[in-house]
Structure formats: C-alpha cells, structure tokens
Amino acid sequence: MQSPKPNWFEQGGDAYARYRPDYPSSLAQFLAQVSPCTRMALDVGCGTGQLTRALAEHFDTVVGIDPSADQLASAVPHERIQYRVAPAERIAGTDHGACLVTAAQAAHWFDLPRFYDEVRRVSVPGAILALISYGVPQLDAELNERFLAFYTDEIGPYWPPERRLVDSGYADLSFPFPERRAPKLEIRREWNAHAFLGYLSTWSATRRALGAGKGELLAKFSTDLLALWGDPNQQRTIVWPINMRLGEIS
After folding, report:
1. What CATH number is given for 13-249 in this structure?
2. Could you state, in chain order, the average pLDDT of each consecutive group of 10 residues for the chain (250 residues)?
3. pLDDT for res 16
4. What is the model's pLDDT at position 93?
5. pTM of the complete model
6. Which of 190-202 are b and which e, b meaning 16 or more Cβ less than 10 Å from the residue's Cβ?
7. How would you class 94 by CB atoms within 10 Å of its CB: exposed for 0-12, middle for 13-18, buried for 19 or more?
8. CA-closest candidate to residue 27, choices 185, 177, 170, 198
9. Which end of the chain is more exposed for a tag (fewer CB within 10 A), N or C?
C-alpha cells in the first residue's frame, strides 16, 4: 500500500489566500457555458477558494472541498459557496449532483484513479471535468532571466516530483474522458515586488528548501530580484499561462 503523499499546503492558508493569483472571470464564464447545467459546481482541492469564488458568479451552488482545514479557514465566505474538509479521493457530496467538477492547480497531488471514480459518482450525466493548472510565471524581460535561473537551477531540485505534471500543462496526466478543446487563457496581474515574493513563499519547493536549511538560497534570490526590480513598490505585469484538460463525464 502506498504511503500518503505529503500535503504541502496543510498550513499557511493565510499566505495562500493573500498571494496566490485569482483566476480570470473568463475562465469561470467558459466553464459555465460548456456545463450541461448550472445547478451545482464542485471545486476539488479548492485551497482558499481562488476558483471557487469565480464559479459562484455562474452556478446556483458551489461546493469547495479541500483536505486542509487551515486553507479553508482563510477562504472568503460567499452565500452560494459551501466549504467542506475532505480529500479528493473521498468527495463529500450527493451522488450525481454536480454539473461541473474542477480541480485548479491541484490534480497533480491526487490519487487520480480514485478521484476519477469519485467524479463519476458525484456528477450528472454529461457533466464537465476541468483539470486546470497555470504554468511558470512570466515577468518583464529584465527580470525573467534571473527568475528562470532561480526556478530551474536553484529552487528546481526542491520541487516535488508532481511539479513536472504542472510544467507539462497536465499533458502527461492520465485522463480517461472524451476531451473537449479548451480556449487559450491566462492570468495577468499587476504586482509589486513584495507581492511576487509573497507568492513564491507559497510554493511547495520554497517550503522544502527552507526545511532543508537552504534559506540563504532564497535570500540571495530575493536580493537579486529586488535589485533588478528597482522601486519595490513599482507595479509590474506578471503572466501565467492557463492549461486545461477538459472532458465530458459519461
């Protein structure tokens, strides 16, 4: 029997809520349009509700589940959202009730065969499953070269193996459903240096590096980034490409 995967996000819900980027409204709008109904959406591995909140603008009810109570404690309440503590492999919900099931920046942590069994159980016929991820952030040219060196060579060895699935845009993920084409979308934010470094603090690789006593590696990159950034309060454009595996549940 496999040992359970570590949950890198069991703590730190406050930082995750503050620094993880929200998804564009166009993503939730698209998902509502392709779903067979808008009675209920289920957001699995919802964290602090970045996508859950966007879905609530288009669905009568949205259920957000996450194994971390700390993450859910930092989620913003909404009258159409129900947050529940549960893992992806044991979804708390009514059989055959979900018109849409999403997992945003989370599916690479799941036991996928068990998750897919649960998806089939909780979904209405013809429901849509969307596995969503966003890739490596892209910064202004003068910052991007230093950032990519950090991402690949310096913090790179501390990424859990599952990160490779994110880097590939989930192209290598097992996906046993008839697929639909997803639109090309991106997350675009105007952030200052403090917000960007706060975002990096939520990475699983950052936590692993700190746990390995490599704080100086992170401090060196912060120093270099701030020197290149200029005024740390200056807003700069950060772009994350959105990748999606989209399928119909029969």
Report:
1. 3.40.50.150
2. 39 66 95 98 95 97 95 92 96 88 96 97 97 95 96 95 93 96 95 93 92 93 95 96 95
3. 63
4. 73
5. 0.89
6. ebebebbbebbbb
7. exposed
8. 185
9. N
| C-beta separation of 185 from 24 below 8 A | yes
Sequence-separated (6 or more) residues with CB below 8 Å from residue 236: 139, 140, 143, 190, 191, 192, 193, 196, 229
Rounded CA-CA distance 92/85 in Å is 8
CB-based contacts of 168: which residues, under 8 Å, 6+ apart?
none
Domain boundaries, the chain: 13-249
Dig out the tokens for 53 from the structure. 């909140």
Q: Which pLDDT belongs to residue 88?
A: 96
CA 161 to chain CA mean position, Å: 16
Q: Which residue has the tokens 């459903």?
A: 177
